[in-house]
Amino acid sequence: MSNKEVKAALKSARDAIRNKEYKEALKHCKAVLKQEKNNYNAWVFIGLAAAELEQPDQAKGAYKKAIELEPNQLLAWQGLANLYEKPNQTDVKGDLADVYQKLLELYKSADKQKWCDVCNKLVELYHQEKKYLEVAETWQKLIQMKEEEGAEKAELHQLWKRMIHLLKDSTRNQDNKTEHLLLNAFEHAVNSADTIPGEDHQNLYKDFIQCLSKFPHEAARLRKACNDMMTLYPTMTYPLEVLCLHFINSGTLSEEALHCFSRIFEMDTSSGPGIIGFGIKCLQEKKYKEAVKSLTEGLQKTNQCPAAWYYLAEAQVKIHKHRNAVLSCNQALEGLGISEDPNFGWKNLALQLKAETLIKIADADAAEEAIKALEQIVGASSDPVISAIRGQAYLNKGLMDEASKISQELLSSHPDLAESHALEGYIHYSQKNYKQAERSFLNAIERKAETAEYHHYLGLTYWFMSDETKKDKGKALTQFLKAAKLDSYLGNAFFYLGNYYRDIAGDKSRARGCYKKAFELDEMDEESGTAAVDLSVELGDMDTALSILNEVTEKASPGTAKWAWLHRGLYYLRSGQPSQAVADLQAALRADPKDYDCWESLGEAYLNRGSYATALKSFRRASELNPGLMYSIYRAAALEQMLGKYENAITTYQQILKKTENYVPALKG
To answer: From 253's CA, which of 30, 171, 192, 618 has a CA 20 to 30 Å away?
Structure first.
């Protein structure tokens, strides 16, 4: 076949392809290849025809042969791109990306528009594959090309915005280079907007700040962006709120942070981050109740703030609301999830605070939970304070050997640590080795004098050690007073001060004040409440006694606060108000249905009210629960007599006389 015939055959192949006669085209190409096996156009036409005949492998082979012959010719690369773009082509995205890269190289100087079209296709392909760095780098090249061509500011602005949109999902698995390109795109977009200030620009700025807030190491850039936005939009709270949350979550409570909290609170008193910031400020100023109130309110508005949950737990611990504090720690840990903090800072803090708080709840289940929390702390094994907490947890679980082992190790390795001596003190105290406990707590106080708990335990040690140390003003009393001064929410210190003033000093008025304070701090402390009421009655101050009882019974749910219902019921019984007495004594029995004294008192109340049949049932129930209650048995007999049940009455009187021959009321009956 001559050169002329080759050209004619190629022309026939081209015409056949134009007329969709692909098999015919293949024949012409094969004839050419017999003559010229390295004919570039023949291989390209074979690729095209084979692709249309659904023979992708043959098409791919033909195009690759053509590329091998002429690597910088466009036709084969274009054909290969078209082949890979077909919907039936799977698992070729990597190859297609390589083809697009080559086309970009070939189009760069030849055809700018086609270069841009291929660039768009390549970016879309990378985006589908979630190859965000490649997306960013390729799109950056497109913008660079447009800038070199002198594109308008508005067009460039739209291109930067498109880049932001393409990379918006990349923040989850960000690498530094992609992050840098995304933030760079935001800065260009923000600065190239047409209308500044304006609604679109405002929303773009918000997105920029939101994006920055996801990168802890971009703190300086975030602060600058927030401050710049505040300058442009002085009435908007959004940048201030983000800045507040940044300070809260980074644990930075600098002057700048406190100023930020105050500023947002002035602008919008209902702002969640503002209220949280105010709560943290209260916590710093030791206004713990206000801190709890503000942090709780702020978290209702801005729930996703793990650091704020931690601060709330801290404040709750300070006012001894331990169960609430554990729940707040759990919320903090839930919010942190898989920690993004490379130092696991917040997570470790929340786990440690949770463990310390669970130990204060002081039961075996809480101790077990504390041990589990400590196991999750990163680097816990090298921290002696955490070891001391673990020792206390073992002690609360009753695992004395494990607790003692930790104590001995700590005293050997960290003899200057207050917690080492305190743990030893707790162990001695639990074993009633008061002399040794005294030495340990004194050692702990020497190293950490401002810890209320150490003074309180030393006071308890003196209280139970002997009558001398209990009565010695310089021993138990002094330590309880120090504990109460250092921690004004430590209810148990006030309870023992009440015990001291009542039992040792004989100062009922001061004792009543201490019990009342202890009860106000912990409304679950029945002993303090009962003592405050009893002393108020002894001092003739029924108003105070009743106000305490009324407050408790108003808040009590059914089946609780037996002591308060019982005390008030007995007061009503004594003061001739039998109907109120009946209601209160019934409430007391709902809390403890087996209290025979309470049943006896209820019988008395019914009797005084004139409800004889129910009074009889109450007295019978009391004597069933305690057959030794002569008064209840006698009252039942007297009521049977009164109700005309003479035979029953006689039998009951005889039962009494069998047990107590000279029981005069029964003889009379």
So the answer is: 171
